[in-house]
Amino acid sequence: MGNGKFGGHFYPGLYIFFYGLYQAIVVSKAMIANDSTVHRSYLPKNQKRCSKLWKIAFGGWLKIVTGFLLTLYVVFCLDDGMVLINKETPPRFMYPQEWQHLTMFILLTLDGCVDVLSKNVLQQRCVALEKASMALGIYVLLLLLLSHVQVSSKVELRVHCLLILVVFLLMLVLTAELWANGSFYLQLIKNFLFLMMGSWLMHTGFILFRPISGYPWKDDDIMFVTTFFCWHVVINALCLLGVYGGISSFWCRCYSPSLRLMGSKEVLYHGSSSGTFYRLLRDAEQQEKDDWALLSESPGCDRP
Q: How crowded is residue 257: how many other Cβ atoms within 10 Å of its Cβ?
C-alpha cells in the first residue's frame, strides 16, 4: 500500500506539473505574438478531412489517456481489487481514500472528453463549456480534499492543508475566467497554480511515503513543510518567468524581423535627422505619396 499511495501522489503531480508547463508555454507565446485567435474554432467548414488531423485536441486526448491509466492504477494497486462494501455483518465501506482518488481520475477523463467534444466534434468551439468543465472538476477536487485527510500526524495535515490552499486559489481563478475569458493575467496565475499543485503533489509523495533520508518525518519537522512549500512558490515563479523570458527571446530573434527593421529605421531617422540621408529618405517617401495620388486620380485605376 505504501507504493500505491506514493504513486497516487507522484504520478498525478507529474502530469499536472507538465500540463501547467505546457499551458504556460502556449499562453506566453500568445502574449508575445498578441494572438487574438487563441480560441478560434477547430473545425472550419471548408477544411479538408486530411488537414483536420493537425487540429486534433491533443490536450483533451492526453487528459483522457492519463485519467484512464490512473484509474486502472488505482483499481489494480489493491490486492483484492476495488471493493465498495465488504461482505461482513454489518457491512462497511472499504478503501475511502482510494475511492476518492478514483473519483478524481474519472473527472479528469470526463474533462478530456469535454475538450475533445468542443474542439473536434462541435462545429464551433465552445470555450465556455471547456472552462466550466475544468472549474467543476476543481470544485469536486476541493470537496474531496477537505475530507481526504485521515489525520495521523501533524505533518500529513500540514502538507494537505497547503495543497488545499493551492486548489482553493485555483478554483477562484477558474471561476473568474468564466466571466473574464481571454485574460492573459488570469491564465498566467492559473498556470502558476497548476505548476504549484503538480510540484507539491510530487514532493508530498516523498514527504509522506518515501522520505529521502529513509526515516519518516516527525511532528517536530512541521515547520520545514511550510519552508519547502515557500521554496516551491519561488522556484515555480522563476520557472514561469524563465518560460516567458525564453520564448520572448526566441520570438524576437526568429519571428520578428519587422520589429528589428522598424527599429533600424527609427535609428536612421533620429541619428541622421540633420544630415543628407534623412532628407533623401523624406523626399523619397513624399515622392511615393505623390505618385500614389496621381494613380488614384487616373481613370484606369481600380479603387477599393
A: 10
Distance, in Å, from the CA atom of 300 to the CA atom of 284, rounded to the nearest integer, reads 25
Tell me 121's DSSP state. I
Going by the DSSP 8-state scheme, the letter that residue 119 receives in this structure is I
Q: Terminus-to-terminus CA distance in the chain, angstroms?
A: 74
What does each C-alpha distance from 278 to 57, 249, 282 come to in angstroms? Answer: 52, 31, 6
Give the distance from CA 225 to its chain's centroid: 25
Residue type, 103: T
- In angstroms, the CA 295 to CA 127 distance is 47
* Angle at CA of residue 96, ends 65 and 209, nearest 5°: 75
Predicted structure pTM score: 0.73
Residue 66 contacts residue 101 (beta carbons within 8 Å): no
Give the model confidence (pLDDT) of 168-210 as tens digits: 999 999 999 888 877 788 888 999 999 999 999 999 999 988 8
Distance CA 77, CA 71 (A): 10
- The residue behind cell 475566467 is 177
Question: By CB neighbour count within 10 A (0-12 exposed, 13-18 middle, 19+ buried), where does 43 fall?
Answer: middle
Lowest model confidence (mean pLDDT) among 52-56, 143-147, 255-259: 255-259
**Residue 138, SS3 per DSSP:** helix
Q: What is the DSSP letter of 79?
A: T
